[in-house]
Amino acid sequence: MAELEGEVGDLEVNAIIGFDGAIVGGLKVHPDGEHIVFPIGNKVAIQHWSTKRQYFLSGHTNVISAIDVSSSGKYIASGQINHIGFKAPVIIWDFYKRVMLSRHEIHKVRIEALKFSTDDRYVTSLGGRDCGNIVVWNVEAGALLSGTEASRGSKGEATCLCACNIRGECFISGGDGNLIVWGIDVVARSIAGFDVNMSKLKRVIYCMEMNERDEVCYCGTSTGDILKVRLNFHPNSEILLPVKPPIMQGCFTKMSSKPLPKGVVDLYGQGVRSLVLFKNGRLLVGAGDGTVDLVEEKKSSKVVHEPATGGFKLPSHPLLRVLKSTNVKSSVTSLQMFRENTILAGTSNCEIFMIDFSTFETDLVVTC
């Protein structure tokens, strides 16, 4: 058998046709408005939307499970799944140079969610069921800042993260009966959490969106309704921690277009999976049954509690007026605004749809 002469080089990937829609929030539109970023297998794909030219960031050893792009567009963070008993790495990339900046292997088995702070200084990572920890990483120093357990006592596991918009040292984690507002103490290298007062309401939170002034946070749930939470931050953005415990303001669902029996509300099928909050207060809602709605909250000075047939009060109130609606036929795992008048929707069927914001007409642009 003849031996190979000379050195054998590595084959570089030129292009990959496909999209991994199983990752919640896996489709990201870069702030430059020209590129989209998404994981596919163990690589991070950067694709120019107009030319379809692709670039790939390689460094993970297993399937990527979480990804985020910083507000400035300079950084990308990605985390992966690993085998039981092994650490799961998080990698910070330079978007423009296409190189790895730093990495850490603090979490076990799986990275559930990643989120950059609004000032790009920190990236928060959330471990999966086998880990259960939150880690704050200093991006500039390339070093660990702090870490702690994501849930407390009898509460379930946390599965999603949301960063504050004007407080770089604050973020929120949510999950199974779990909703906590966190503040980072840089000097003490620690993080402190404040539980949101949800009274007797029990919900599994899938996604979260915060308004631009850090006043309220909307949370999509597995039940198919949306929680509105008042965060109770001080008007002075330099004061990081809430002045009093954050509290749930309401639990809303959409107003039905047809009469419903007493004690019945119109919930989103298979839960609210994705949310986008606009500056005018309107919400873009992506559901597990493929529904994509543009809704606005009905202003009401008084919420009427309608008793259900069993004699108890309904926790969900139909206060979301549906303005526009469409359906993409499978669970909406990602929703992103692209340029001014287009919505990109990634689905669990590994498809990407373009939705015209004016007409809500859909166009399938990527499929496997």
From TrEMBL:
Superkingdom of origin organism: Eukaryota
Keyword Transferase applies: no
Cellular location(s): Cell projection, Cilium, Flagellum; Cytoplasm
Broad class of the protein's primary localization: other
Keywords attached to this entry: Cell projection, Cilium, Cytoplasm, Flagellum, Repeat, WD repeat
Pfam families reported for this sequence: WD40
Any one cellular-component term (Gene Ontology): axoneme
SUPFAM superfamilies per record: WD40 repeat-like
Listed InterPro entries: WD40/YVTN_repeat-like_dom_sf, WD40_repeat_dom_sf, WD40_rpt, WD_repeat_EMAP
Function: Microtubule inner protein (MIP) part of the dynein-decorated doublet microtubules (DMTs) in cilia axoneme. Important for proper ciliary and flagellar beating. May act in cooperation with CFAP45 and axonemal dynein subunit DNAH11. May play a role in cell growth and/or survival.
PANTHER family with a match to the protein in the record: CILIA- AND FLAGELLA-ASSOCIATED PROTEIN 52, WD-40 REPEAT PROTEIN
UniProt family annotation: Belongs to the CFAP52 family.
Assembly and binders: Microtubule inner protein component of sperm flagellar doublet microtubules. Interacts with BRCA2. Interacts with the CCT chaperonin complex. Interacts with HSP70. Interacts with AK8. Interacts with CFAP45. Interacts with DNAI1. Interacts with IQDC.
Name of the protein this chain belongs to: Cilia- and flagella-associated protein 52
